[in-house]
Design goal:
This protein is an alpha/beta fold and about 325 residues long. The protein has 12 helices and 12 strands. It is about 45% helix and about 15% strand.
Length: about 325
């Protein structure tokens, strides 16, 4: 079957090629009678515009790139879903690259995005090292940071207030009557959210006069099994703990599994609070008390902000913070 062209549509609808193009891109600019003839011709001919040709005309690829550090992390499924829905709204395809927190791989993906002439890049949940920034600047591709930020460079970002969210989680445990509180955190060396979440932990303890707990922290590296091992270290050193704040839901699940394997009741003997509010947080037993990030909305807003930057050259808000929320479920109780 021969594929229909834009000329075929124009001929059938008895309009110019430019009118067909305007119906596809700015339909409100075309008179209703002509617009209806074009839409009818498109349907009859089953016409699909050639994206490559479209890119040559408009000097755009109608593609956005997303750099994420760990595609196996369930957090990014919500981010991707939000971005995808926004891309559909604005007429983009989405190209996803998993960096695995490898610098060389990330830099090579920036080159790939440049070669593919993507219209913009969302850089998610990683530290913006100078070499990343310098390469991004050289490509001249618009960039938005997601769940990360840069004090050094004026790059638009969408995030939550990690310090305030962690503070709210630990303050909640203190208000439940817990005074022996530990933490499972991210390693600070290669984490953008690890330090501020630790700072929120420290601020809540200090305000309550519980500074003795500040050192009761062990670090994990993004996975359930790492948190399981960190929980073993934490409770071996501090068996008196009655509550643990975890900087990720997957960490909270690892801690609870460790405690269950040692016949420690959650929340009967130890309360556990997570962070993210992944879909699994409401499926896990016990259901997780956690800090909810607006994960879908973060992804959607990042794509929306990138579209604004790519089409106008500017954004209305440079550093945008979305609201978090404490969700109380079964993994926490009064001391």
């Amino acid at each position: 079957m021969i594929k229909s062209t834009i000329r075929d549509v124009a001929r059938m609808a008895q309009v110019s090629i430019s009118t067909v193009s305007r119906v596809m891109n700015t339909p409100d600019s075309v008179a209703e009678s002509k617009r209806n003839r074009v839409l009818e011709a498109i349907e009859k001919l089953q016409y699909q515009p050639n994206s490559f040709a479209r890119g040559l005309i408009y000097k755009k690829s109608f593609t956005l790139g997303l750099l994420i550090p760990d595609i196996e992390n369930f957090y990014y499924t919500g981010i991707i879903r939000g971005m995808q829905d926004a891309c559909i709204k604005f007429g983009y395809s989405l190209m996803i690259c998993n960096t695995d927190r490898d610098k060389d791989r990330l830099l090579s993906y920036i080159d790939t995005f440049h070669e593919k002439q993507v219209d913009g890049i969302v850089f998610a949940s990683d530290v913006l090292y100078p070499e990343y920034y310098e390469k991004l600047v050289r490509t001249k591709i618009p960039v938005v940071l997601l769940s990360t930020y840069s004090d050094e460079y004026d790059i638009p970002c969408v995030e939550i207030d990690d310090e305030a969210a962690a503070y709210d989680a630990v303050k909640f445990l203190i208000e439940l009557g817990h005074q022996e509180i530990g933490m499972i955190g991210f390693n600070h060396d290669n984490s953008i959210s690890g330090p501020p979440r630790y700072e929120g932990f420290v601020r809540a303890l200090t305000e309550a006069g519980l500074e003795r707990n500040v050192g009761k922290i062990r670090f994990a590296t993004h996975r359930f099994e790492h948190a399981y091992g960190a929980a073993h270290e934490l409770f071996t050193d501090y068996p008196e703990l009655t509550a643990v704040f975890c900087v990720a839901d997957e960490f909270a699940m690892g801690v609870i599994s460790y405690l269950k394997d040692r016949n420690v009741l959650v929340p009967g003997q130890v309360s556990v609070v997570g962070f993210d509010n992944l879909r699994m947080a409401n499926m896990f037993i016990p259901k997780l008390t956690t800090i909810a990030q607006p994960i879908y909305e973060l992804g959607y807003r990042a794509a929306e902000k990138l579209h604004e930057l790519a089409t106008t050259g500017n954004v209305s808000v440079l550093r945008e913070r979305m609201a978090h929320k404490l969700i109380v479920r079964e993994s926490s109780r009064e001391k």
